[in-house]
Amino acid sequence: MDDGIELNFAVSDGLKRKAVSKGGRWTDRAAARKTARQNVKAAQKARRDVAPSKMPSHQVQVPSAPRQPAIRPPPVTPSEPRGARLAEQGGGDTSRPSDSALARAVLEHASAPGPSRSQVSKPAPQPSAVSSSTKGKGPQIISSLFSSNPSYQAVKTTGSTVIGAPSNAPLKGDANTFAGLGLDPLLVHHLTNKMSLRAPTGIQRSALPYLLSEPLDINARAVSPLDENDEERSSTGSPKGKERAVEEHQAGLRDVLIQSQTGSGKTLTYLLPIVQTLLPLSRLSYIDRSIGTLAIIVAPTRELAGQIEKVLEHLLSMALSLPGAETDEHYTRWLVSGLFTGGATKTHEKARLRKGVPIIVATPGRLLDHLQSTSSFQCGKALFLVLDEADRLMDLGFEETITGIIKALDGRRKLAVAAEKEMDEVGGGTMRWPFWNRGRTTMLCSATVDAKVERLAGMSLRDPVIFRSEANDQVERNVVKDKKPLGLPSQNSIEMPSHADPDKFTPPSQLSQRYIVTPTKLRLVTLVALLRSLVSATSGNGGNKIIVFLSSTDTVDYHWKLLGGVKMDDADQDEQETSTNMISLSSPILPKTTIQRLHGSLPLATRKASLAKFTEASESPSILLATSVASRGLDLPLVRAVVQYDLPTEGGANEYVHRVGRTARAGKGGEAWAFVGPAEIGWVKWVEEKMGLAGDVADANAKRTESSVRLTEAGVEDILRKGFGGSGYEYEARATDVQMAFERWVLASDSNAALARKAFGSFMRAYSTHPIEEKPFFHPKSLHLGHLAKSFALRETPSTLGTGQTSKVQPQQKPIQAKRKRDAESSDEGEKAAEERPRGGKELTARNKTEERMYAAVRKAGRNVKSGGTLGEFSGTGGKKSNNAGTGGGEFQVMDGNEIERMLSGRK
Ligand SMILES: Nc1ncnc2c1ncn2[C@@H]1O[C@H](COP(=O)(O)OP(=O)(O)OP(=O)(O)O)[C@@H](O)[C@H]1O
After folding, report:
1. Does residue 300 line the site of ligand 1, with CB under 6 A?
2. Ligand 1: which of 191, 206, 635, 654 to mutate, most ligand atoms within 8 Å of CB?
3. CATH superfamily of 511-570+583-694+708-792
4. What sequence ranges are listed for the domain Helicase ATP-binding (predicted)?
């Protein structure tokens, strides 16, 4: 498809601008000004030299709107709030001279006298294109994307940025086989032939020997159930009373904490032992589904639970005998799985539980619900409880729910024991369970372990063994020495050795991590340019999926509709019909690419369909715009790149690692890109220091003094040039055209404009919720609102569009209440616990802390507003207020620009 914009990856060396000078004195700044002027001259010359006819034949011209005399752009956004510009440049990390130089250049260039590049030589924007679609919509303003724009430093984008060999890949070497770890031949056969998994990963190598070391002895004599009143336990001769609890637990496996990198195969690490342990039970004559549930896996979201259940189903579909093997003893298909996430009706789920489901995968709220209200749910004999994505469970506020689940399971067990004893006493007991003394093994899994996970571990695990991923060479040593499970001390928590720093979160070593210091005004076009480069470089094998993270549901919705609705010619920018049920859009600026979105406020069916569409095998690249709902656990195949357009507002470095972990999984390559604002560059060093190196890379670099993980800067100019192509500075004109097309789309209808303003407001509010620790880099005061508006394709800051009109609160409340209800109904969990929260909906629940901080901040501002007598909203253009122009955040709206400014500056 001809998208009307060329993709040209050749970078003209001769036209590269020199780096602005570094240092903090006025002489340096004068030098920077001089360089800027020289650059303008050089650009002029270059453009004169580049005749359009000399363009390579493979390059496609920018869509040709008729050129008209340029209308001068207005002087640098007169509506900039006081202090905003300064703030945009401040706050940088002075230890990174290049970054601070960039920030200074923002100021110098913006305020430097003399002609701007666009005034001198940039092809003029086409006012006609604007006017055609904006008749009667107020004054025209020409996009001034590159004029008066912060100059950006010509950072040379380097090649490979990976720091080591794959750290989450299957291990190499003959000694590293699934069979060697003690896995049943049936499972080995299935993994190899049906799932194409030939060797274990580091965490599997580390944990499987232990987890497979206690098979159930199906020939064991039945024993009486245990309880505190037992006088004797003759069949086992075990001690009685208090000691029994310990004894009981020691007879089985100790509880386990599994911590390893994203994409390292934790799911199979706990599923394989569960399946292998339970499988032999099917040979027992008395075993049928009425035995109830023997293993429970808890995952924080529906998507994750569904994903785990799919892997489990796949495992359970294995052949029950080896081809050609002759044996009298066959397993039966007793072992099945069930998904309990609130997606189906409860009646249906209850019916399934009544029949019996040996292994269930559930979200926490729904599981607790069944434990409390479904009496036919037999789970007193459960042998395994897995808490997957432990950190996410805690983030989502499931601590109490998990406590409830553990208590309920203990209660069920007691009831089952009592029932068994009663049957025994009356002599009618025919079904005797030989595994009462085994207890229940709890496994906790997480890629990152922080204080919250430690709290969950303390609450749910007894005497745990901690497993971390082993590096390749370490494995060899262990395997040679001892084929049995690594020696475990009999008491106290122990930790399997790992060379990685356990206190740091380690991204996969093969992951390339880059950041782009992007002037706020250029964010949107830089995103487009980056996506264009990424989609054009994708290949089926290496992956052709890209995930873009944004900070809120509103910004996801807006960018999705904007990309899908924008037109690059003069065609009417009609409002595109996009209902909540719509799955996929395409965009003229991202050829042959489908664009999906994912956030917690979408109906479950839409979310499922979006994910399915995004992951479907296709030659066409695919982009998923998502909130943090997509950051944990999701194992989406062929994700080649993760772009963090908005850096995480919650979860800090931890969240960053989870997000980038959606690519570079199981040893595959991947790219991570982070958009960093000029005032946010200190974040780079901060996040680097929070991350540790993995396994063997940590070994090799043990003596390195510098920060362990490095993010590499990519030049914004390079990105723009690559994405938009053309010779010399042509990319500027192309980027400007794209920006103008976006702006036309916004102006095309009231609802488009309202979406843009809503997204802008949501971004602002999300931004203000960065935790205090991150405030040095993400302070709302440092946001240049005028430039930020530009990045939302708004021609003016929403705050300055106000006419002083006030709105009544009442009319706003209805849609907000309706939205909340929708959120709750379609919430990720759909779960009681979440629904009980006043704000409902997973997305809202997920941002509990965020919302608390945010609401506190906005409430504070709200007081200011109310003290002024009114509670208002971002109002529409031309004094006409749109119905939908609220801030998207519920009851808190801000009246006008002064109020926003006051909120940001902390003035009364
Ligand atoms: N031994 C193996 N060899 C090759 N691929 C594997 C192996 N084990 C698991 N995988 C694959 O690795 C991918 C990631 O696995 P999984 O989702 O379990 O990772 P994870 O550690 O749980 O990651 P996250 O922390 O992001 O949830 C899956 O696609 C899985 O099929």
Report:
1. no
2. 635
3. P-loop containing nucleotide triphosphate hydrolases (3.40.50.300)
4. 247-467
Residue 216: phi, psi to the nearest 5?
-75, 135
- Expressed in angstroms and rounded, the spacing between residue 476 Cα and the centre of ligand 1 is 21
CA of 666 to the centre of ligand 1 (A): 6
- Closest of 769, 488, 493, 484 to residue 647, by C-alpha: 769
pTM over 0.80: no
Query: Following DSSP, what letter does each residue of 807-871 receive, concatenated?
Result: --HHHHHHHHHHHHHHHHHT-SS--HHHHHSTT-SHHHHHTHHHHHHHHHHHHHHHHHHHHTT--
For the Cβ of 446 lying below 6 angstroms from any atom of ligand 1, the answer is no
Question: Distance from CA of residue 834 to its chain's centroid?
Answer: 20
- Which atom number of ligand 1 is nearest to the Cα of residue 304? 27
Residue 426, judged by CB atoms within 10 A of its CB (0-12, 13-18, 19+), counts as: exposed
Dig out the tokens for 683 from the structure: 């974040």
Decide which of 1.20.120.80, 1.10.3720.10, 3.60.15.10, 3.40.50.300 is the CATH code for 178-214+253-320+332-468.
3.40.50.300
**Which residues in 645-697 belong to E strands, given as ranges?**
670-676
- Check pocket membership of 263 for ligand 1, CB cut-off 6 A: yes
Asked whether this chain's domains 178-214+253-320+332-468 and 511-570+583-694+708-792 adopt the same fold, the reply is yes
Distance 667 CA to ligand 1 centre (A): 9
- Give the closest residue (by CA) to ligand 1 atom 15: 265
Residue 648 near residue 679, CB atoms below 8 Å: no
Q: What percent of the chain has pLDDT over 70?
A: 57
Place of tokens 């805690």: 394
Centre of ligand 1 from the C-alpha of residue 201, in Å: 8
Total residues found in the chain within this entry: 908
Which pLDDT tens digit goes with each residue over 293-339?
Answer: 999 999 998 889 999 999 999 999 999 888 777 666 678 889 999 99
Task: Answer yes or no: are the C-beta atoms of 649 and 763 closer than 8 Å.
Answer: no
- Residues 409 and 878: their CA atoms lie apart, in Å, by 61
Ligand 1 geometric centre to CA of 473 (Å): 21
Confidence of residue 624 (pLDDT cuts 50, 70, 90): very high
Residue with token string 């005497």: 463
Q: Check pocket membership of 338 for ligand 1, CB cut-off 6 A.
A: no
Q: Which range, of 17-31, 199-213, 623-637, 761-775, averages the lowest pLDDT?
A: 17-31
| Residue extents of the structural domains in the chain | 178-214+253-320+332-468, 511-570+583-694+708-792
Helix 451-460 and helix 399-425, axial crossing angle in degrees, nearest 10: 10
Is the CB of residue 200 below 6 angstroms from any atom belonging to ligand 1?
Answer: yes
Determine whether the shortest distance from the Cβ of 700 to ligand 1 is under 6 A: no
Name the closest-CA residue to atom 7, ligand 1.
265
Higher-scoring residue by pLDDT: 67, 266: 266
